[in-house]
Design a protein that fits this description.
Number of domains of chain B: 1
Shape of chain A: globular
CATH superfamily of chain B: NADP-dependent oxidoreductase domain
Number of strands of chain B: 8
Distance between the termini of chain A: 46 Å
Number of helices of chain B: 5
Order of helices and strands of chain B: EEEHEHEHEHEHE
Largest interface: A-B, 20 and 30 residues
Helix content of chain A: 40-55%
Oligomer: heterodimer
CATH architecture of chain B: Alpha-Beta Barrel
Number of helices of chain A: 7
CATH topology of chain A: TIM Barrel
Structural class of chain B: alpha/beta
Number of strands of chain A: 1
Structural class of chain A: mainly alpha
CATH class of chain B: Alpha Beta
Helix content of chain B: 25-40%
Strand content of chain B: 15-25%
Shape of chain B: globular
Largest sheet of chain A: none
Strand content of chain A: under 5%
Radius of gyration of chain A: 18 Å
Order of helices and strands of chain A: HHHHEHHH
Strand order of the largest sheet of chain B: 3-4-5-6-7-8
CATH architecture of chain A: Alpha-Beta Barrel
Radius of gyration of chain B: 16 Å
CATH superfamily of chain A: NADP-dependent oxidoreductase domain
CATH topology of chain B: TIM Barrel
Number of domains of chain A: 1
Chain lengths: 135, 177
């Protein structure tokens, strides 16, 4: 869940508190609050997950798990919970499958930005090669 | 619950796997055992732990649950891992043959099982040639101590190198990435 981020439990510009991973240690590793909060991408992803979840009437955690379960090459997704409540919520993703459109929306919000290092623009262009249609 | 075959293997696992990093830490043994029971009730059969989780306590908690539930061990697929420090000793960390021999035996003991279904390198080890690690895993499969090999937290080139080398050297394939 991105250290809890994808469950929607953390708020913008509001230091996390309480019995949560970042509530106990806001500076924790790559999930650290100060690191993620200022990035637009963080909130773009969370907003997309939230909107899919609301439209479907399921929890954000379930949407996140369902997206991951149907990614290419994924067999199984590891979930972890402190409480039985969280576990039950997570297990609710068991038979949830997102539509093509929902998946595309989440993909778009979350696609990582790949650096142009080491070959700059030319290097980026040589990563793909399309074939022109003759018709 | 839905099921799939694990990677390129024939073993069937639930699409949701229960992680146990909180066992012995944020979740005490009672809660952990309830989670395990609930997970099984809901059709889950795939359990993931690691030697380093709560300093061995996660494996011990899982081990006590497996012992307490008659017949459950054969109904579940148990995965664990090694790589991170389990002590201050120079060789209580990493993916060397010396380290993993001890780490695997310790995990088998804590879990109280005869074999680990999926044994994973918990991270890349920049100090150990990956061939050494892959050969250890292969030996462990032949000895029946582990069934499948996996890796965790490897980045692109590390995944590619490990997977192709295992194939090239005729060693047990990497089943999970």
């Amino acid at each position: 869940m991105g250290g809890g981020w994808l469950t929607g439990k953390y708020q913008r510009d509001s230091a996390p508190t309480g019995n949560t991973r970042l509530g106990e240690d806001p500076e924790r590793g790559m999930e650290a609050y100060a690191r993620r909060n200022p990035e637009e991408r963080t909130w773009r992803v969370i907003d997309a997950v939230e909107s899919v979840a609301k439209a479907r009437g399921v929890s954000m955690a379930q949407v996140a798990l369902a997206w991951l379960v149907d990614r290419p090459a994924v067999t199984s997704v590891i979930l972890g919970a402190r409480t039985l409540e969280q576990l039950d919520d997570n297990l609710g993703a068991a038979e949830l499958h997102l539509s093509t459109e929902e998946t595309a929306r989440l993909d778009q919000a979350s696609t990582p930005i790949v650096d142009d290092y080491p070959y700059g623009d030319l290097g980026v262009r040589q990563r793909g090669r399309g074939l022109a249609s003759t018709t | 619950m839905e099921y799939r075959t694990l990677g390129n293997s024939g073993t069937v696992v639930s699409t949701l796997c229960l992680g146990t990093m909180t066992f012995g830490a944020e979740s005490d043994e009672q809660v952990a055992h309830k989670q395990l029971d609930r997970f099984l009730e809901q059709g889950g059969n795939f359990l993931d732990t690691a030697d380093v989780y709560a300093d061995g306590e996660s494996e011990r908690i899982l081990g006590r649950w497996l012992a307490a539930r008659s017949g459950v061990r054969d109904q579940v697929v148990v995965a664990t891992k090694a790589r991170f420090p389990m002590g201050d000793g120079l060789n209580e960390v990493g993916l060397s043959r010396v380290r993993l021999t001890r780490a695997l035996d310790a995990s088998l003991r804590r879990l109280g099982v005869d074999t680990i279904d999926l044994y994973q390198a918990h991270a890349w080890d920049p100090l150990t040639p990956i061939e050494e690690t892959l050969r250890f895993f292969d030996d462990a499969v032949h000895a029946g101590k582990i069934q499948y090999v996996g890796v965790s937290n490897f980045i692109g080139w590390q995944l590619q190198k490990a997977a192709l080398l295992a194939r090239h050297l005729g060693l047990a394939p990497i089943v999970t990435l």
